[in-house]
Structure formats: structure tokens, C-alpha cells
Amino acid sequence: MGLVLAVKILIDHQTDRTRLNGIDCPEKGQAYGQRAKQAASELVYGKEVTVQTHGQDKYGSTIADVLLPDGTNVNHTLVKDAWCWWYQKYAPEGCGARRVRDRSTSCAERVVG
């Protein structure tokens, strides 16, 4: 299983390591790992985002949903676009990523050129 994709968010001039709530992504050494990281970066880089926190993981990283200025949930977009998948172990039953997963294809089915 890959690591949960993490983003770094600047808060009051300090970087906070933030794990995206309820999703899992391939590690950078795995198939599509670098592309998943790039997809996440393209969504958030240079943008002012809203971070809805859900506590911390066992490594001290903030667990959060990241929302773009237009309200788009980055976590859900990465699942919908098949870069990541809903991760049942760490996502509550009502997690929106699960509903998105049920309507998307898996990374293995995606052909990237």
C-alpha cells in the first residue's frame, strides 16, 4: 500500500505537513506515484486554500480536507481523477471520498500517455 499523499501548507509563514483525509495514493517509487504527486501539486500550487482539519496522524501530521477557492475538495478530485483511492481504514463511513470512489475508475484502469 502506498503512503497517504501529503501536501505542505504554509500557515503563518510556517510549513505544516498535511495528510489528505480519507485517501491513499501510490508512493513516488510505485506506478503513477510521481504523476499523482504532480496532479495534487497542479491543483494547489500557489493557491490560497481552506484546510478543514480532522486531528493528527501517528506521525504528527495534520489530517485534513483541502478546499480550493471555488470550494472544490482536492481529496475528492484526486479520487475522481483516479490518481488516488478512498482508503477505508482511515476514512469514516460517511467520507465524501468513498462516494467519489464509487463513481470513478481505478488507477490500474487509467491509461496515461
Oligomerization: single chain
List the strand order in the largest sheet.
Answer: 1-2-5-4
Encode the helix/strand succession as letters.
Answer: EEEHEEHEH
Number of domains: 1
CATH architecture: Beta Barrel
Q: Which fold name fills CATH's third level, the topology?
A: OB fold (Dihydrolipoamide Acetyltransferase, E2P)
CATH class descriptor name = Mainly Beta
How is the biggest beta sheet arranged?
4 strands, mixed
Q: Tell me the distance between the termini.
A: 24 Å
Query: What is the overall number of helices?
Result: 3
Overall 3D shape: globular
Rg over C-alpha atoms, rounded to the nearest angstrom: 13 Å
Give the number of DSSP strands.
6
User: What's the overall average pLDDT, rounded?
Assistant: 75
**Given the helix and strand composition, which structural class is it?**
alpha+beta
Flag low-confidence runs.
100-113
Task: Explain what you see.
This protein has about 110 residues and is an alpha+beta fold. The protein has a single domain, classed as Beta Barrel (OB fold (Dihydrolipoamide Acetyltransferase, E2P)). About 20% of the residues lie in helices and about 25% in strands. It starts with 5 loop residues before the first strand and ends in a 12-residue tail after the last helix. About 30% of the residues are buried.
Could you write a compact summary of the structure shown?
The protein has three helices and six strands. The protein is an alpha+beta fold. It has one domain: OB fold (Dihydrolipoamide Acetyltransferase, E2P) (Beta Barrel).
